[in-house]
Structure formats: structure tokens, C-alpha cells
Specification:
The complex is a heterodimer of chains A (113) and B (112). Chain A is mainly beta and 113 residues long. Chain A has no helices and eleven strands. The radius of gyration of chain A is 13 Å and the shape is globular. Chain B has no helices and eleven strands. In chain B, a hairpin with a 2-residue loop joins β6 and β7. Chains A and B meet through β5, β9 and β10 of A and β4, β5 and β10 of B.
């Protein structure tokens, strides 16, 4: 099976712009989670989607949003970018919502100038 | 915060030695998982241990879980230079419908 793919892999934006990141889960996986990783805060949970429904949301401002499509592919959007949004954004898919391992994509490295 | 904590934050050993990393957490869990991350890349799942299990093995990896102490340890035996990476524990809280909570990781360096 193909692994989790994320596009783009690298992105450079300027403050105030918006960005959309994409994640394609492993075939058959219906749960997709997003994480932000920074050196200072570590891995922080953004949100989780299962069958197109948001199941959980982390403690991030409303500028961060996401969605999941009927084919389980997911996108996350960050509007009005701030310098502090520079991070590695990781997507993970799993076959169920709990009790199973998560399979991570390679991440999207976002740099905000 | 419900975040777990790994100890030590960094560990440097010689090739062939064993590496032990510890993880503590704060609330009752359904399971605890260990992941590895090579520099700036995605995480790779290593092992999952359920709350009713005390020890689990996978190749050179041995994980223990002590729910009374709310702690887990990951032992890598006969380490190799390729084991150099960051290792994270992640726990699934036993209250349902919650995401995995990751610790800040242990940075392991294995020197050839």
C-alpha cells in the first residue's frame, strides 16, 4: 500500500497570506489527524477527521481549519499567517479512531516570512 | 497539561550499547505508543502497548508499562548508528474520543 502523502513538502509564505496543505491517507483509512511540530512546543494536535466529520480539535485559533472529503483526503487551511505558524505540519492516518497505530506522512515544512 | 514527558531529553551512546528512554504520563490511558522520527521527517510507529499489558517486544525493542506509576520505558538493545533519531511516547487517554497526546521526545545519538 502507498503511504501517507502530503503536498506540498515545502512552502514559503509571507505574513498575512493564507495556505492550504493537503494530505492523502493510506487507502482504506478513514481517520486523518493533523499535528503542528515546532522546536519549542513539540508535537501539538490540531484536529482529527473521521468519515468527513471533525471528531476532535486542539487548542488552536480559528485561523486554523480543516476538512475531509468523501475519499478521506484531507486539507488544512491557515489564514492570516503569522511568523509563529512556521512549523512542520504532519498528517497521520489510521484505520480507526482509537487503539490503533497512526501512519504519518513526511510533513509539510511551512516557513512564514 | 496532559502531555507526557520523556526522560532524558537527550542521550548519547556508543554503537552496541543499550539505550533506555522513559516516559511518564498523567491520566489513565487505554494504550501507550512509541514513535521514532528521523530529523525533520514524519514519525514512524514502533510499538503499541495496551493498558492491560506489562511488557512487549519487537525485534531489538522492549517496552514496559507500569500503570501504577504512570510510566513506560523503551529499551533499544545493541544500538546502531541508524537508531539515531528522536523517540516520542504518545498516550491515548482513557476517557474516549480524545486524540493521542505526544511527549516532547528523547533525542538519541548513537556514535559509531
Amino acid at each position: 500500500k502507498a503511504g501517507v502523502t502530503q503536498t506540498p513538502r515545502y512552502l514559503i509564505k509571507t505574513r498575512g497570506q493564507q495556505v492550504t496543505l493537503s494530505c492523502s491517507p493510506i487507502s482504506g483509512h478513514r481517520s486523518v489527524s493533523w499535528y503542528q511540530q515546532t522546536p519549542g512546543q513539540g508535537l501539538q494536535f490540531l484536529f482529527e477527521y473521521f468519515s468527513e466529520t471533525q471528531r476532535n480539535k486542539g487548542n488552536f485559533p480559528g485561523r486554523f481549519s480543516g476538512r475531509q472529503f468523501s475519499n478521506s483526503r484531507s486539507e488544512m487551511n491557515v489564514s492570516t499567517l503569522e511568523l509563529g505558524d512556521s512549523a512542520l505540519y504532519l498528517c497521520a492516518s489510521s484505520s480507526w479512531t482509537s487503539g490503533v497505530e497512526q501512519f504519518f506522512g513526511p510533513g509539510t515544512r511551512l516557513t512564514v516570512l | 497539561s496532559q502531555q507526557g514527558e520523556e526522560d532524558p531529553q537527550a542521550l548519547s551512546i556508543q554503537e552496541g550499547e543499550n539505550a533506555t528512554m522513559n516516559c511518564s504520563y498523567k491520566t489513565s490511558i487505554n494504550n501507550l505508543q512509541w514513535y521514532r522520527q528521523n530529523s525533520g521527517r514524519g514519525l514512524v510507529h514502533l510499538i503499541l502497548i495496551r493498558s492491560n499489558e506489562r511488557e512487549k517486544h519487537s525485534g531489538r525493542l522492549r517496552v514496559t508499562l507500569d500503570t501504577s506509576k504512570k510510566s513506560s520505558s523503551l529499551l533499544i538493545t545493541a544500538s546502531r548508528a541508524a537508531d539515531t533519531a528522536s523517540y516520542f511516547c504518545a498516550n491515548e487517554i482513557n476517557s474516549g474520543n480524545t486524540p493521542l497526546v505526544f511527549g516532547k521526545g528523547t533525542r538519541l545519538s548513537v556514535i559509531a
